[in-house]
Design brief:
This protein is an alpha+beta fold and about 180 residues long. The protein is built from five helices and eight strands; from the N terminus they run βαβαβαβββαββα.
Length: about 180
């Protein structure tokens, strides 16, 4: 993936981008990278007002950005719908506003940053289906918002749990 802020690759038949936030990006990236059909992942910041944020700016909710993961995937192997329903909504608790585990603040919110009308419609439909399923007892608070400028996180955040096995994460896949 590009390391330039704001650069978004255009989708081609065998590549699509999803931008997902659901708490600390370390745990999300670690699960997302292992999904069949995922080609690349990148931890970063999006959805806020501060240009070129650093971790220090995003920590304590000062920039408005969410910690997120940008996922490049092959839609012939993994659909956007399945990525959301079978993986994203299982790897974090979408009923806790601005919180995952011990991590608290708007940077840890649950959000899907869509790239276009088709992704928005799919995200809304999946969110409604997951809510109606009763798998989560509370109200799903996942925000669905237009993707904005993407800022890659600092290098030490990339692939963090791969480089630091046993490091902190509050993410795991729920068995449904």
């Amino acid at each position: 993936m590009s390391n330039s802020p704001g650069v978004v690759e255009t989708s081609v038949k065998d590549r699509e981008v999803a931008i997902l936030a659901g708490g600390c990006f370390w745990g999300m990236q670690d699960i997302l990278r292992k999904i069949p059909g995922v080609l690349e992942t990148q931890a970063g910041y999006t959805g806020g007002w501060l240009a070129s944020p650093r971790y220090e700016d995003t920590h304590d909710s000062r920039s408005g950005h969410a910690e997120a993961v940008r996922v490049l995937f092959d839609p012939r192997v993994l659909s956007y719908e399945d990525l959301l329903e079978k993986w994203f909504f299982r790897m974090h608790d979408p009923t806790t506003p601005d919180r995952q585990g011990n991590d608290v603040g708007t940077q840890y919110r649950s959000a899907i940053f869509h790239e276009g009308e088709a992704q928005r419609a799919t995200a809304e439909a999946v969110k409604a289906r997951v809510q109606a399923s009763g798998r989560w007892k509370g109200k799903i608070v996942t925000q669905i918002a237009q993707a904005s400028t993407w800022y890659p996180a600092e290098g030490y955040h990339q692939d963090y749990l791969q480089r630091n096995p046993g490091g902190y994460t509050c993410h795991f896949l729920r068995n449904w």
